[in-house]
Amino acid sequence: MTGPVSNYHGYSDLAALKKEAAESPQDAIMPVARQFESVFLQMMLKSMRETVGEGGLFDNESMKTYQGMFDNQLALSLSQQGGIGLADSIAKQLAPEGSALQGRLHSQSAQAAAAVKAPRDES
């Protein structure tokens, strides 16, 4: 999958990832890591949703179905836009030492660390 996924993950998206991984494993590392992060975020959102008490005006099976669909799409969108950093960590571990992907990931993490450490303007 070379382009961003615009809909929540399904069997066809997973089959395309599997095909890409078979054809060029190095190019598939980041999309597979993002897909894993998306599944992780989806499970996290589902667990968070279960902690909220039931009841209320909009508590029915239809609403639960749409909330599940929304959570799937939200998880995928979050992972495609940087997510929580899990995909980058996974890709960094899976990329071979000295590869272009690993170099790019290291420079991104160095830039992020520098941005966090940069002093804020107290104006």
Written description of the protein model:
Pfam families: Rod-binding (PF10135). Keywords: Bacterial flagellum biogenesis, Hydrolase. Residues 46-93 form the Flagellar protein FlgJ N-terminal domain. It is a single chain. The radius of gyration is 18 Å and the shape is flat. Helix content is 70%, strand content 0%. The protein has one domain (11-117). The protein has helices at 11-23, 25-50, 61-80, 86-94, 100-117. The chain is an all-alpha fold and 123 residues long. The mean pLDDT is 78. The termini are far apart.
List the helices and strands and how they pair.
Blueprint: H1 11-23, H2 25-50, H3 61-80, H4 86-94, H5 100-117
Helix pairs in contact: 1-2, 2-3, 2-4, 4-5
Shape: flat
Structural class: mainly alpha
What is the tally of helical segments?
5
> Roughly how much helix do the residues carry, as a percent range?
55-70%
Instruction: Report how far apart the termini are.
Output: 45 Å
Number of separate structural domains: 1
Largest sheet entry? none
SSE order, one letter for each helix or strand? HHHHH
Quaternary status of these chains?
A: single chain
* Count of individual beta strands: 0
Low-confidence stretches: none
Organism: Paraperlucidibaca wandonensis
Pfam family, one: Rod-binding
Protein name: Rod-binding protein
Keywords: Bacterial flagellum biogenesis, Hydrolase
